[in-house]
Amino acid sequence: MSNEPSTPSAEGADTAGALAWPFGTEDALAAAPAPDGDAPRVLVLGATGYIGGRLVPRMLAGGYRVRVLTRTAARIAAMPWADDVEVVEGDAADEEAMRRAVADVHSVVYLVHSMSSGKDYGRLDRAIALAVARACADASVRRIIYLSGLHPPGELSAHLASRKEVGDILLASATPTIVLQAGVVIGSGSASFEMVRHLTEVLPYMPAPRWVLNRIQPISVRDVLYYLLAALRVRDEVNDAFDIGGPDVLRYTEMMNGYAEVAELPHRAITALPVFTPRLASHWVGLVTPVPRRIAVPLVESLLHTCVVRDGGAIDTLIPPPPHGLTGYHRAVRMALGRIELDDVETSWADARVPGAPSDPMPSDPEWAGRTVFQDSRSKRTSATASAVWDVVTQVGGATGWYSASVLWATRGLMDRVVGGVGHRRGRRTREGVRVGDAIDVWRVEAVEDESLLRLRAEMRVPGKAWLELGVEPRDDGSVYRQRAVFFPRGLTGRLYWLAMLPFHGLVFSGMVNRIVAEAEGDDLARRRGN
Q: Rounded to an integer, what distance in angstroms lies between the CA atom of residue 400 and that of residue 13?
């Protein structure tokens, strides 16, 4: 998709039903000026999510004025496009926050859902939809665009039923709404793609639930972004739901073996068995893939249905197919793997907020007075420059690992997965570089001070709140690497947990210090020799 779209003419004959502008190339996805000459202001709900994080920079490149609603402004500040958007802090379910967010807005792009928020996500999705509908009506917003999911008629899984209910609420509101109902999204970092990828790569033979024989119609993330951008240019009076999908209708077994073909893996033997319940299958997916059970459950339940385009391609009467053509499944997989190989994954499912995990920042040291707090602090002088140490620090986790006791880290992660936590295999979005809000295995990046400090907040299930700080200070003859683990225990259980972990800390944290310094010195020496 072009990042430098030309501004299309607002005049000319319609070429595609309700489209009010000539539609020849993707460059024509740029914003059409409002009657006052200004670019339309669009509110994006879910701007830091998997789709939203990719859509926002493309909207900005197209000339839109973008406003985002976020619980934490610091999360937006870490985005490369942060300086180009308006930020409103608040919760989407809070009607007062929504009223502030929609003021003087032309359109709203609705990308939020509460799938990972626990068992009561349907109630929360309903509350958000009602808050959005009321606020948009009061502010005379011209258009709502909602990304929903493909679904068959009749009884649905809880996840698909919730997505459909949100669409129905918005369509029944006073604001014209376009609901785009997409199938399984294939792209680097998407939960569905990661589920296919890890199941295929890990298991040469798979006994699987019967749902692997159901037919689904996956769609490339590239095409989803195209339809969302194009929907912003559709005439205001359109109020309807439209199915969108890629050109291929496949069984889940065919998706897995299609991935194997692109990844040059042997054909996978898959046997469909009647004994797997959705919940049992989600446990199995949670153990084999990095996708945690709270996300695997609704994904697996959705696969119980045949989900294909059923409205005869009605979207084509509203928005013509992409100029590049709909992206086939094999090509979408190839593109996703290429992004992963280049370490150029824009957004990832793993960076989504973890319900129940601590979100408040670590208090400053003076605020600890009178509180119980445990620390493990270590430091080491090194001849390596601060820059060399920082390069090693920012690669921690994911495929690189934690520089010591990998078996112990993996065991701790497995224990977390067993009790429903995120686990150690969540990995990281990219191999190098970190930004606030990124997930790194069982941690969340809370603070980044370039070439100085990386603070990680634990999202594993522990009886208390935990942080890990990795920092470096420059010296005339090199630098000092500093490392600190901080734990605020909750009750007696928290205190006993810290005591039980002391032997683990002795092995892991001392090993981390030594290995990080050694890696930095080796890299620094190689760099000097290269010069």
A: 55
Identify the burial level of 214 via C-beta atoms within 10 angstroms of its C-beta, where 0-12 means exposed, 13-18 middle and 19 or more buried: buried
Domain, as residue range, for 223: 26-317+326-351
Find tokens 């072009």 and name the residue. Answer: 2
Does residue 212 have a pLDDT over 90?
Answer: no
Q: What is the pTM of this model?
A: 0.80
Considering the domain architecture, whether residues 93 and 229 belong to the same structural domain is answered as yes
Same domain, 338 and 470: no
Is 11 among the domain residues?
no
Does residue 3 lie in a domain region? no
Residue 325: CB atoms within 10 A of its CB come to 10
DSSP assignment string, 296-357: HHHHHHHTTS-B---SSSTHHHHSPPPTT-PPPHHHHHHHHHHHHHTT-----GGGS--TTS
Facing residues of 481 across strands? Answer: 380, 472
**414 contacts: CB under 8 Å, gap ≥ 6:** 423, 424
> What DSSP string runs through 21-86?
S---SGGGGSPPPPTTSSPPEEEEETTTSTTHHHHHHHHHHTT-EEEEEES-HHHHHTSTTGGGSE
* Whether residues 157 and 264 fall in one domain: yes
Q: Each residue of 380-424: pLDDT tens digit?
A: 999 999 999 999 999 999 888 899 888 888 888 777 777 767 776
What is the per-residue pLDDT across 70-125, written as a single tens digit (0 to 9) for each? Answer: 988 888 988 989 999 999 999 998 999 999 999 999 999 999 987 555 567 788 99
Measured CA to CA in angstroms, residue 406 lies from 50, 164, 289, 347, 423 at distances of 29, 43, 18, 26, 14
Domain co-membership, 336 together with 453:
no
Indicate whether 309 and 376 sit together in one domain.
no
CATH for 158: 3.40.50.720
Residue 17 counted as domain residue: no
Token pair of 415, please? 């224990």
Q: Are residues 231 and 380 in the same domain?
A: no
Read off the pLDDT of each residue in 294-308 and give the average, rounded to a whole number: 79
20 in a structural domain: no
| DSSP code for 229 | H
- pLDDT tens, residue by residue, 416-472: 777 767 776 678 888 878 888 888 988 999 999 999 999 999 988 889 999 999 999
Q: How many domains does the chain have?
A: 2
- 269 and 392 assigned to the same domain: no
